[in-house]
């Protein structure tokens, strides 16, 4: 939103703040939409199995299908998840009107070597099942072209968020515990009121101090062709400086590491290294000028 604010020019801080929170809500919606896709794929596979059993002349494979995918322990647990079921009941199934996309994703899955190899494994290992679903999302489901096209059509807010949200879905899957069963928690929109307030204050501090922070960035990128520096890198550094200066309880290295990671999703391949180098010099300067009094590490 800081990026959009500077691009538009005429937006007020209040307008940008409102749009930021709407964007966060839409990202949270995409997160659930992706999780529900995994359940839709499980349901699609179950229906296909039943249809094959009902053939006039079913084969041995039709009558005794391999159930590894539909009985995957992680998918079974996800299908019972109280929070996901509550979300689905409140908002409806987003995949009802997109059966061709579900079918396309499933066919891509069944053709993948990852799926073929998994179907030959023995059931009963929760860790194996979890690892398979995480890899399946990353390697097969997420790259499916029709899925990206659909998401882009559904919401303009999803265009730049897809890769980041996928990483959050994978993080969720990897964090599941069999012992938690249906009570496993999904990622909330905000952890608590303090988290929500942090987002609001960080945006405001970034926009209010934009001019001063830009001067700092220009000072420590004087050996670079400033016009060729990715604009997103500049915005990310502005936000990072605001966090480092304004939030005394957040260690500098935590802020630095976070914005290097964010750059991987929203900017260029070399952005992380570039941002780290510039911010490192800026932090040294801020410590020397006693603008901040917390150590770098």
Overall pLDDT score: 90
- Which class of secondary structure composition applies to the elements? mainly alpha
The termini sit apart by 29 Å
Strand portion, in percent?
A: under 5%
Instruction: Please give the count of helices.
Output: 15
Pick out the low-confidence regions.
1-5
Assembly context of the chains: single chain
Number of strands: 0
Largest beta-sheet details: none
- Rg from alpha-carbon coordinates: 23 Å
* Apparent shape: elongated
Descriptive account of the structure:
By secondary structure, the chain is mainly α. Helix content is 68%, strand content 0%. It contains 15 helices and no strands.
Brief sketch in words of this structure:
The chain is mostly helical. The chain has helices spanning 2-8, 13-53, 60-63, 73-79, 82-91, 99-111, 113-118, 126-141, 145-154, 162-175, 193-208, 210-219, 231-246, 252-266, 271-288.
What's the helix and strand layout?
Elements: H1 2-8, H2 13-53, H3 60-63, H4 73-79, H5 82-91, H6 99-111, H7 113-118, H8 126-141, H9 145-154, H10 162-175, H11 193-208, H12 210-219, H13 231-246, H14 252-266, H15 271-288
Helix pairs in contact: 2-6, 2-10, 8-10, 11-13, 12-13, 13-14, 13-15, 14-15
